[in-house]
Every structure is written in C-alpha cells, then in structure tokens.
Design a protein that fits this description.
The chain is about 0% helix and about 40% strand. By secondary structure, the chain is mainly beta. A hairpin with a 4-residue loop joins strand 10 and strand 11.
C-alpha cells in the first residue's frame, strides 16, 4: 500500500484514521473529517493499485464484528456493494496481490478462530477452497511478496496465550508451509510485516511481549537484522512500505505511543512529527 497525498491549496490530505481524512498543513485548523466507516478496531486496509482505492474490510467494536467493505478514493468513502461478501471478520490479515489484482484475506476471528481464504476483485468476493491451509488464527502478519508472486503469512494466535511461529505462502491456488527448520522469529501475535520492493524482502517487526526484533524474509529463509537504532518493543502497530522513498514506515501500537519510524534496510530512523495522530493500537 502506498502513502497517497493530494495537494489542495498547498495542504496535503493524508488518511490517518478510519473515520475520515485529516487536513494537515503549515496552518492547522480544527480537524475536518469525511464521513466513512464507523469507528472500529482490529480492521484491515490495503491499497488497490489497479483501481486506485484504499479497501477496508471488517473490524469490530465491543461485541459487534463488522462484515462491510469500504473504499476510499482519496476524496470520499463509499460502502461497496460487492457480491457474496465474507461474513463478519476482525483481527484478520489482508494484502493486495498486485500480480493478480486481487485483495486477499486470511483468517481472523468471528465468535471463533477462522482459517478461510477470500479474494476481492472490486466487484465480488470469492471464497477460495485450497487443498492446504494454515491453522485457524488471528492477529497474524501478512505481506505480499511481489518479487516472487506470493502472499506470506507468519505467526498469530489460536486464542488464549497460544502463539504461532509458522510461515506459509499462498500463490493464488494453494497454501504451502515453508517454515524453516531453524532460524525463524519466535512464536508471537499482533505482529506486522511489509514488503520492501526495492530489496525484494518482507520486513517484520515487533509482536507480543514487547518484542523489538527486526526480521527479513527473502523467499526462503528468515534473517534477524541488527540495527544501530531500534524502536521500542511494540505490538498491534501499523506498518507499510513507501515505494517512492524506499522506506518501511511504522507508526504507533501498544508500546509505541505516537512515534513514527522508518527503516531503509540498514537502520531505523525516528521521524519527529509536529502533529502526530493520537496513540492507538
């Protein structure tokens, strides 16, 4: 997913929350919000490059779990009328497969742990019946490896304090367990990953228990990366790849507060912002 900015009267409109767009500029007035999805947690959003919209699906608030699909075109939110949408999901993982031009969803929670695989092409949702599948889970990490045309999934939880540490890849037809015999990140959940297209690697950071480790997946093996600067350990943060500046951008999370960090493949750099969003995870 790319960070998208639209210039308007020398101000930049940047999506910072599910409830709308916050106007940020040299002079900051009261926040102005575009009506959209209701406030929620444990949701997922990705950028559909082919249709140039952000796609948001699921999430929950209290005991309510949502099943709606929303799209943001840089100006306004629209609730999708897609055919055959999945049922309610929260704490799922979602990525955009740029090769096949489809949004891919796996797992999540809806009164029980899920292991379903869904695809969305902007018109309809399709449940994919695969021969193999990761175990049911939620709060796992997932990224699309564009160099190898594979969705990569790692970790998560089956509920309670049961953490997972396996690695799976999905090629649009089936899932394959590619967990290395050794040298993987420890089992964890509420972990996040992003694909660094310039270097052809999936970057993973954090997770439960205040984890502050940085790992990279090259399509065959995991490598733990030692950096001079290290963000504080955190879970339930946000992480995306900015392809224009060739940086992984990480923000917030449980343990991260309102800080923003960037990773260029060599080191982490904290970015100081005068107007950060309020802390959330």
């Amino acid at each position: 997913m790319k960070l998208r900015e639209v210039t308007m009267n020398k101000f930049a409109i940047v999506v910072v929350a599910l409830t709308g767009s916050l106007l940020v500029g040299a002079v900051v007035a009261a926040p102005q919000f575009v009506p959209g999805p209701s406030a929620r947690k444990n949701t997922c959003a990705v950028y559909d490059e082919a249709r140039q919209v952000v796609v948001l699906y699921g999430g929950g608030v209290g005991s309510t779990i949502f099943s709606g699909t929303w799209e943001f075109d840089g100006v306004s939110w629209t609730q999708s009328t897609a055919v055959a949408p999945p049922g309610a999901h929260e704490s799922h993982a979602m990525v955009y497969d740029s090769q096949r031009q489809k949004v891919v969803v796996f797992g999540g929670y809806s009164g029980g742990t899920l292991n379903d695989t869904w695809e969305y092409d902007g018109v309809s949702w399709t449940l994919v019946n695969t021969s193999h599948s990761p175990a049911a889970r939620y709060l796992h990490a997932m990224a699309y490896d564009a160099a190898r045309g594979r969705v990569v999934a790692f970790g998560g939880t089956t509920g309670g304090n049961s953490a997972l540490g396996d690695t799976w890849v999905y090629d649009g037809v089936d899932w394959t367990d590619v967990t290395p015999a050794s040298g993987s990140p420890s089992a964890r959940w509420s972990v996040h990953a992003a694909f660094d297209s310039a270097r052809g690697k999936v970057v993973l950071f954090g997770g439960t228990n205040g984890n502050d480790e940085t790992w990279e997946w090259n399509g065959a093996a995991w490598s733990q990366i030692t950096t001079a600067a290290t963000p504080s350990g955190r879970s339930a943060h946000a992480m995306i790849y900015d392809s224009v500046r060739a940086r992984v951008v990480m923000w917030g999370g449980n343990g991260g507060g309102t800080d923003t960090w960037e990773y260029d493949g060599n080191d982490w750099l904290q970015v100081v912002s005068s107007y950060p969003p309020s802390g959330r995870f």
